[in-house]
Amino acid sequence: MWTPDSWRSLPIAQQPDWPDTARLEIVEKELSALPPLVYPSEIKNLSGHLAKACKGEAFVLQAGDCAESFDDYSANMVKNKLKVILQMAVVLTYSSGVPVIKLGRIAGQFAKPRSAAYESVNGINLASFRGHIINGDGPTAQERIPDPTRMIKAYHQSSATLNLLRALTKGGFSDLSKVHTWNQEFVASSDEGQRYEILAHEIDRALNFMAACGIDLKNEESLQQVNFWTSHEALLLSYEAPLTRYDRASKTYLDLSAHAIWIGERTRDLGGAHMEFFSGIGNPIACKMGPSMTPEEVVAVCEKLNPRRIPGRLTLVSRMGADNVDVKLPRLIKAVTDAGHPVIWSCDPMHGNTFVSDNGFKTRNLEAVIAEIAGFFRVHSALGTWPGGIHVELTGEDVTECIGGSYAISEEDLDTAYNTICDPRLNARQSLDLAHRVAELLIKN
Ligand code: PEP
Ligand code: CO
After folding, report:
1. Does residue 414 fall inside a structural domain?
2. Whose CA is nearest to atom 6 of ligand 1?
3. Nearest CA to ligand 1 atom 3
């Protein structure tokens, strides 16, 4: 029998070693009494859109920080992230004619899986940083002690972020007539920004044309508002379970910490706690899959997570690395297709293409990122399946964390503005560059 707590008796990976379990229990109780962050009707609405992506009638753009930060947080940063995601969506929609579902890695993307329990910082061996919802990223043993109270702070920051996102997406800022204002100054001066400006002018002309034809654009809600949904990796189940509530209308439990959640590559063990938790909630869910995923295993994942075969419920996010995608992905797609499981295929071109530069920065090359997406499209085109989306790590800020792009960032430039607390993110210019190139792939598809 599944319950929001049935995962507790199973082996669980990637959880902190809480020093004070009594405190943890108090915090979980407090979280369970707090209002939900999202509403069941919104989740239902998103599920409907995702069902379309599953049928090849929409494309999913999932994007945001690797890890949100408690310290590096402001209204402007949220706004800038939204701007770049809206810009990317406009480029993708306008160029390809396919509706784009906008899903942020935001308002809850705090917990991080780590490959090792310890890491060396300035020559000192410290417990690994696991995301601000768990511990601090500072270089002292004290900072690294897991503190359950951080979950309350993560909840409130998520709530504030969501509040702002709702205002920005429903209150006029996201009106299509404002496409120009989403182009930030440092982006507008670049090649990608100029290319965006040309497209924005075309949109203006199209809107003017429609207005001249007598269409009342001011009353057209779909031009003035944007649907923007939130998602995160539901890694820390002590946070997710208390925010999971029974929804009478749909007769299911919903994790109301976000509209959609995903299982990471390191916690997708079939007999593990995460699979159990995900199998019983009604939200749209996703599962990452790296090069070690086998055809048998991926079918078992589908059976476990979507036994009723609901289109749009399950997204499989491949993150193979540019060199692996052509070899590893086709067998997985064939197995899932043969088993008759409806899934959305998405590509995370970030996590299989990470390396450490000669000068010591964890980075990614935009060319490798794009090469993996191109491989993903190639494989789907050969098999006749729909490349349903991309999943990327980006920021709206002018950072130098990934190399490449038309305004080429080299390894030597990385220390100029390397601000991430976890993985390297594409900056706003690189993100737009990526969107233009994915749009070309979508048109060809
Ligand atoms: C992530 O999305 O930040 C992540 C850790 O991914 P993965 O589980 O695919 O490694
Ligand atoms: Co990451």
Report:
1. yes
2. 264
3. 66
